[in-house]
Amino acid sequence: MSTGAPLRPSQGPPLEQGRVPVPAARPPAVKRMLPARWRARARLAPWWAAVAGIWVLSRLVTTTLVLILARVQGANPWTGASPGYFDFANIWDARWYNIVATSGYPAVLPITSSGHVGENAWAFLPGYPAVVRVVMFLSGAPWAPAAVIVSLAFSLGAALLFYRVMLRVQGRGTALFAVVLFCVAPLAPILQFGYAESMYLFFLTLALLLLLERRYVLLFPVIAVMAFTRPSGLAFALALGFHVVHRWLTRRNDPFPVPERILAASVTAFSALSGFAWPLIAWIATGSATAYTETELAWRSSYIGYQELVPFTAWFQGGVWWLGQPLGIVVVLVLVVGFAAALFAPAVRRLGVDLRFWLAAYGLYLFAVFFPQSSTFRLLMPMFPLLGAIAQPKRLSYRIAIVVLCILGQWGWLLICWGVDGADWTPP
């Protein structure tokens, strides 16, 4: 017969002699830092409120950085010294979008003194300036504030959609932190400037979400708008092609019925046609079959002169221009191999095949047609699903360090690419 009071459920058996008691598991550092009632409210808050809160805080940080730089900005081709926020947010290519919104596109291509097509509005697609023009008409606001409002609205929408995309491949906490990185990334200031990036990222994120959900019918209108916002139809068609082939090869484990095959193949073809739509429109409007490509080539002429567009050569040309022979070639090859290897890293593989298909397709597209220079950072923004891989480590010190580095990166990008210093050759 046992003696003494019976053990209560909250009690354990007496410690064996010589054993050291094991301390109870401590809550994660973040939980120890926050009051219990705050944590309870955070768990009860709807997902969209959490994402919107992250977006608001990030915009406050970015706007502060922009205003600090604007205050010390000297006179430049677009503004006087110390411009206001809206004026400062509409320099560089924002002026081209303004021209498209107010004057449209030239029927006659400008020709330089050397007989080549010069820089002109055909390089800038009409989706974003058309939306801003509608806002201008409805509100009576001038271009500068209307452009910023449109960009801000689409950036919030993109953040909300990005959370939904990440939630399909990550847990809630990691998905939210991926949104944090999206909102504070080094290029985040452009999400509130007079550029088409916010609108494009919104429709790209929507397209990726629809692809993950296999809602092929809804992809048709989204791809159409996306293709007239930023050049993207060919890259997304390649990603869709990878998707169709993968579904066909895995159809025994993942059924791919005939109606879905027809829809998936049709939307792939539609995306490819959308990629050629704008060059075709430029040809019809100007009478020059190469109007669009020659216009795009005008922007790289200040680096390597006027040359024909030969796919998969521009990065090597850029490598040689920046670093010389043979280092430029070697660096480009290392970048190509490094990017391919990154797609198979465990953290990236956790994003799933479809997001990796997009990363591979867009990377191949950039490698085929883009000349690397300071705008490269902006052109890499559509690879934002990689933020889902960067967001996976849960250590608090890691996450704080990444956010701080991102904000420092914003300041660096603003100084190098957005701020204008005399005859600046580092366009954003």
TrEMBL record:
<feature type="region of interest" description="Disordered">
    <location>
        <begin position="1"/>
        <end position="22"/>
    </location>
</feature>
<keyword id="KW-0256">Endoplasmic reticulum</keyword>
<keyword id="KW-0812">Transmembrane</keyword>
<keyword id="KW-0328">Glycosyltransferase</keyword>
<dbReference type="InterPro" id="IPR007315">
    <property type="entry name" value="PIG-V/Gpi18"/>
</dbReference>
<feature type="transmembrane region" description="Helical">
    <location>
        <begin position="47"/>
        <end position="70"/>
    </location>
</feature>
<protein>
    <recommendedName>
        <fullName>Mannosyltransferase PIG-V</fullName>
    </recommendedName>
</protein>
<feature type="transmembrane region" description="Helical">
    <location>
        <begin position="396"/>
        <end position="420"/>
    </location>
</feature>
<keyword id="KW-0337">GPI-anchor biosynthesis</keyword>
<dbReference type="GO" id="GO:0031501">
    <property type="term" value="C:mannosyltransferase complex"/>
</dbReference>
<comment type="pathway">
    <text>Glycolipid biosynthesis; glycosylphosphatidylinositol-anchor biosynthesis.</text>
</comment>
<dbReference type="GO" id="GO:0006506">
    <property type="term" value="P:GPI anchor biosynthetic process"/>
</dbReference>
<feature type="transmembrane region" description="Helical">
    <location>
        <begin position="262"/>
        <end position="285"/>
    </location>
</feature>
<dbReference type="GO" id="GO:0016020">
    <property type="term" value="C:membrane"/>
</dbReference>
<feature type="transmembrane region" description="Helical">
    <location>
        <begin position="357"/>
        <end position="376"/>
    </location>
</feature>
<keyword id="KW-0472">Membrane</keyword>
<keyword id="KW-1133">Transmembrane helix</keyword>
<feature type="transmembrane region" description="Helical">
    <location>
        <begin position="320"/>
        <end position="345"/>
    </location>
</feature>
<feature type="transmembrane region" description="Helical">
    <location>
        <begin position="216"/>
        <end position="242"/>
    </location>
</feature>
<keyword id="KW-0808">Transferase</keyword>
<feature type="transmembrane region" description="Helical">
    <location>
        <begin position="175"/>
        <end position="196"/>
    </location>
</feature>
<dbReference type="GO" id="GO:0004376">
    <property type="term" value="F:GPI mannosyltransferase activity"/>
</dbReference>
<dbReference type="GO" id="GO:0000009">
    <property type="term" value="F:alpha-1,6-mannosyltransferase activity"/>
</dbReference>
<feature type="transmembrane region" description="Helical">
    <location>
        <begin position="143"/>
        <end position="163"/>
    </location>
</feature>
